[in-house]
Structure formats: C-alpha cells, structure tokens
User: Which sequence fits this backbone?
C-alpha cells in the first residue's frame, strides 16, 4: 500500500466511527500513531514515577555537597592535629586540677580567714572586722564573699594586700577603699570585699 493511498484513507476516515475494538482494521498509519502516543505516555509515566523523585534527591544531595566537603576538611584537620590536641587537653586538665586544689572547701574557709588575720597581724595592722557574707551559688562554683576592714600605714597595707594575694588558696579582692584615720593622716583605714570560691561538684559530692 502506497503512502499516498494511506494518507487518502486517513483523510477519508470518519473519526467519530472509530471503535477501539476494531483497532486491528484501522489504517496502519493510525495504528502506528496510537502506538507512538501510548509509548510516549508510558515513558512519561515512568519518568514521573521513577526518575523525578531520584532527580529531586540528587539535587538535594548536591546542595549538601559543599557543607559535607567543609565538614570533611574540618574533621581531617582535627584528625591531623589529634595528638597535639590531646597534649593540650592534658595540660589544661592538669592546670584545672591545680586550680581546683587552690579552691578551699567549705570547711577550710574559717582557716582561710585565720590566715588573712595572721597576715594582717604580721604586718602590724589593726583588724576592725572580718565578716562573712552569705554564699552565692553559681553554675560551676560557690562564691564566698567576706568584708575586711583593717587599719595601718600605707606601706603595711600594701604588703598585707600582697600577702593575701599570695595565699595558697584563691582569694580575689574587690571594692577597695582607703580613708584617713585620725588627725595625723599617716594612719589609713582599708575597707574591701574579698571573695573565695569552692568547686561546686566537690561540695555536692562531699559527705
């Protein structure tokens, strides 16, 4: 059958009378067209059902690629410096252990105050008062503030402050004020707030 004859059959075909049950006697060109349409619809359905989700997943993974590369480089650098980091961690842990030993426990605060009093007496200062305040609980430690008032000349007061700072337990000094005492102007009154600290876990774990 010639192509011209097939085209003529298509033009003369009454499309309203087509019956799918009689598809076998349709013109071969119409059968081919229907097969191509069916094949195209099948491929489109397979792409939509199988390929499209995979493509979306691929785009998502590509979007994460840059972050994954940065994470890999960061972890590779950490792995390369792991030994040095372990050494630094050991040094820091040793230093932390030393600092913890310098923090008095609650039972040691009275003896610390005795040491401060002895330091004042050694420097020939008159002690007006050393008075404890209430403790202040922080996240990792307990703060014990106390007020100190002593009298003496300027140089002895300076030596006293240096002696308190050099005590084996950590004591920090705050809000220091000096005021003349008496008419000569050589005798001074020192008022200050001192704080010492206790490691909170040690206090909680103590019996």
Assistant:
């Amino acid at each position: 059958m010639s192509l011209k004859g097939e085209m003529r059959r298509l033009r003369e075909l009454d499309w309203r009378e087509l019956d799918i049950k009689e598809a076998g006697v349709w013109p071969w060109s119409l059968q081919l067209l229907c097969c191509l349409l069916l094949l195209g619809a099948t491929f489109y359905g397979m792409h939509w059902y199988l390929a499209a989700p995979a493509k979306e997943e691929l785009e998502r993974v590509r979007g994460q690629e840059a972050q994954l590369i940065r994470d890999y480089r960061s972890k590779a650098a950490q792995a390369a410096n792991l030994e040095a980091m372990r050494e630094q961690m050991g040094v820091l842990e040793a230093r932390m252990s030393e600092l913890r030993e310098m923090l008095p426990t609650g039972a040691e605060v009275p003896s610390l105050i005795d040491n401060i009093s002895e330091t004042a007496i050694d420097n020939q200062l008159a002690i007006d008062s050393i008075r404890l305040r209430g403790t202040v609980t922080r996240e990792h430690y307990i703060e014990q503030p106390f007020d100190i008032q002593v009298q003496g000349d300027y140089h002895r007061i300076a030596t006293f402050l240096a002696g308190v700072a050099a005590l084996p337990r950590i004591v920090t000094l705050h809000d220091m004020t000096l005021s003349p005492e008496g008419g000569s102007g050589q005798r001074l009154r020192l008022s200050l707030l001192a704080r010492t600290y206790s490691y909170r876990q040690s206090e909680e774990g103590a019996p």
The chain has six helices and five strands. The first strand starts at residue 126 and ends at 132. The two ends are 108 Å apart (CA to CA).
